Amino acid sequence: MGLDWDPVVTGEIIEEWAAWGFARHANFMRPDGVAQAVCAVVGLPRGVHATVIELQPEAPLAPTDEGDQ
Q1: What is the pTM for the complete model shown?
Q2: In Å, what is the CA distance from 46 to each residue of 41, 43, 50, 52, 65?
Q3: For the residues 1-29, what does the mean pLDDT come to?
Q4: 3-state helix, strand, coil in the chain (%, to 5)
Q5: Contacts by 57-63 with C-beta closer than 8 Å and gap 24+?
Q6: Alpha-carbon distance 24 to 61, whole Å?
Q7: Is 30 helix (H, G, I), strand (E, B) or coil?
Q8: Rounded to the nearest 10 degrees, how much is the dihedral formed by the CA atoms of 23, 24, 27, 28?
Q9: For all residues of the chain together, what is the average pLDDT?
Q10: At CB < 8 A and 24+ separation, what contacts does 15-24 make?
């Protein structure tokens, strides 16, 4: 997804995503997480209809008072 995009175009696209609420932070889904979600849906038993599946990358964790991340 966008690996061959021009850096300027990529920046413009991400700014547009943020303006529309699609990019809440700079984290992206890792391929193994997406693959697990696909397998979970594909592996649903017969008769189960999953109408909407939404995946979101985890937001960055804020440091605590102890300086942990």
Answers
A1: 0.54
A2: 11, 9, 11, 17, 49
A3: 79
A4: 35, 0, 65
A5: 57/25, 57/27, 57/28, 57/29, 57/30, 57/33, 58/27, 59/24, 59/25, 59/27, 60/25, 60/26, 60/27
A6: 13
A7: coil
A8: -40
A9: 82
A10: 24/56, 24/59
- Three-class SS state of 48: coil
Whether residue 1 is predicted with pLDDT greater than 70 in this model: the reply is: no
Residue count of the chain: 69
31: confidence class by pLDDT, cuts 50, 70, 90:
confident
